[in-house]
TrEMBL record:
<dbReference type="InterPro" id="IPR036390">
    <property type="entry name" value="WH_DNA-bd_sf"/>
</dbReference>
<protein>
    <submittedName>
        <fullName>DNA-binding IscR family transcriptional regulator</fullName>
    </submittedName>
</protein>
<dbReference type="InterPro" id="IPR036388">
    <property type="entry name" value="WH-like_DNA-bd_sf"/>
</dbReference>
<keyword id="KW-0238">DNA-binding</keyword>
<dbReference type="Pfam" id="PF02082">
    <property type="entry name" value="Rrf2"/>
</dbReference>
<dbReference type="InterPro" id="IPR000944">
    <property type="entry name" value="Tscrpt_reg_Rrf2"/>
</dbReference>
<dbReference type="GO" id="GO:0005829">
    <property type="term" value="C:cytosol"/>
</dbReference>
<dbReference type="GO" id="GO:0003677">
    <property type="term" value="F:DNA binding"/>
</dbReference>
<dbReference type="GO" id="GO:0003700">
    <property type="term" value="F:DNA-binding transcription factor activity"/>
</dbReference>
């Protein structure tokens, strides 16, 4: 979703779900579903009809990675976690007890870091990269190649 938001930040006007979906190689319905959480928080807005689409609705210097994470329903941050196949297994219980706190600490650290990174910072980095890039970064074609 950060990818989508940064592309939107570089657009002059609204961007349709279809264009965003093409760039992200997914279905427009997926984009609309994901964007709904951001719209509820006031981070984006959508306009229907000809010339409509998604636009940013907030100051990127106030929108953090943590804000986006929360707006998306707080998806899992870590791809690993405790096993739960055999909850009565004493080995599984011992391992989960030892690792559980480490996973909680790692997630807390990530969320703290997310709260300190704004989309404005990401956009500034993107623009610096674009300034040294030889080819334009076209939303509709950059990811399809």
């Amino acid at each position: 979703m950060l990818h989508v938001l940064l592309h939107m930040a570089e657009q002059e006007g609204p961007t349709t779900s279809e264009v965003l979906a093409k760039a992200m190689q997914t279905n427009p319905v997926v984009i609309r579903r994901i964007m709904s959480g951001l719209r509820e928080r006031g981070y984006v807005r959508s306009e229907k009809g000809h010339g409509g689409g998604w636009t940013l609705a907030c100051d990127l210097s106030r929108l953090t990675l943590r804000d986006v994470h929360e707006a998306l329903g707080e998806p899992a941050l870590l791809a690993i976690g405790n096993r739960t196949e055999a909850p009565s297994c004493l080995v599984e219980q011992a391992v989960n007890a030892a690792l559980g706190r480490a996973f909680e600490d790692a997630e807390a650290m990530l969320l703290e870091r997310f709260a300190s990174v704004t989309l404005a910072q990401l956009r500034a980095d993107l623009r610096a990269r674009l300034a040294t890039h030889r080819h334009p970064c076209d939303l509709e074609t950059v990811h399809g190649a």
